[in-house]
Design brief:
The structure is a single chain. By secondary structure, the protein is of the alpha/beta class. 37% of the residues lie in helices and 22% in strands. The protein contains ten helices and ten strands. The protein has a seven-stranded mixed sheet with strand order 3-2-1-4-5-10-9. Strands 6-7-8 form a three-stranded antiparallel sheet. Helix 1 runs antiparallel to helix 9 and helix 6 crosses helix 10. It binds S-adenosylmethionine (SAM). The site of S-adenosylmethionine (SAM) has 22 residues, from helix 1, strand 2 and strand 4. S-adenosylmethionine binds next to helix 1, strand 2 and strand 4. This is Class I SAM-dependent methyltransferase.
Length: 252
């Protein structure tokens, strides 16, 4: 739902996400946890082209790296940065049905806070889409932030009560960045990206789910086909959730 607008949000930022003095990747502890699961030659998918630190680590580990993203501009820019050939980059919205040739195609599927980018409506489909990429015995490792982001609380505090009611919907478990007003309110600063671009970027992201650990794990359980192997907390408050598809390697 609303995929094209969300994709445009990321293309507004494009390569400035990793090229303008902002580090938007995983916590260092999680970067290490992701990296130690990478294997030479293993088909490895990074979902979310903006997380170039993960893609670079996969290349350095000798993995067979594929990058998936629903935003054509950021996918192109990241592919250029990484030197990815065409059959290693895939324009895919993981909240939509996964194309047949990518189903169960990856021993390792990695995503940094991608799950936080889904709307509440799309969260179950996004989990199913990520699951469908994973080969038997393969791993899906995703970082998430539970509850509101600090920036959500700061934005919420700067809004009028009427705006607050539109911005944070506890009943739906969702924030809606599309309602951000024109006036000066605290917005995140990502390196040299201007305040105007940041506002347009966030507005286009629209609705994003905010959930608890139990809510996420019950969504994973309801999707089926993945066992939770581990959850690893980082000091920045994010959590790495490691899931495995049962089965024997090489069977699909
Ligand atoms: C991985 S997320 C989060 C990046 C960063 N680590 C953070 O926490 O802000 C952002 C990336 O995922 C991509 N993305 C977001 N939703 C997507 C979806 N439904 N399918 C595929 N790619 C998506 C965006 O285009 C962008 O490149």
């Amino acid at each position: 739902m609303n995929g094209p607008a969300k994709a445009r949000a990321w293309d507004l930022v494009g390569e400035h996400y990793w090229n303008s003095g902002y580090y938007g990747g995983p916590a260092p502890e999680h970067q290490r946890e992701f990296t130690r699961r990478m294997r030479p030659g293993a088909r490895t998918a990074v979902v979310g082209a903006s997380t170039v630190s993960l893609s670079t680590a996969a290349q350095q580990a000798g993995a067979d790296l594929h990058v998936l993203d629903f935003a054509p501009g950021i996918l192109r820019a990241a592919s250029h940065t990484l030197g990815l050939v065409e059959d290693r980059r895939h324009l895919v919205d993981v909240t939509r049905p996964i194309p047949g040739h990518l189903k169960q195609a990856y021993e390792l599927v990695l995503a940094d806070r991608l799950v936080n980018r889904f709307s509440a409506h799309d969260l179950p489909a996004g989990i199913r889409g990520l699951r469908d990429l994973v080969a038997p015995a393969g791993i899906l490792a995703v970082t998430v932030r539970f509850g509101l982001y600090e920036r959500d609380s700061e934005i919420h505090a700067a809004l009028t009560p009427a705006e607050q009611a539109l911005f944070w919907r506890p009943d739906a478990g969702e924030v809606d960045y599309s309602v951000l007003p024109d006036r000066d309110i605290p917005l995140p600063v990502w390196g040299a990206i201007s305040g105007d671009v940041m506002r347009d970027h966030l507005r286009a992201r629209g609705r994003e789910a905010r959930f608890s650990r139990d809510e996420l794990l019950s969504t994973v359980a309801a999707a089926g086909g993945l066992d939770c192997e581990d959850t690893i907390d980082a000091t920045d408050g994010t959590v790495l959730v490691v899931l495995r598809r049962p089965g024997a390697a090489g069977q699909s």
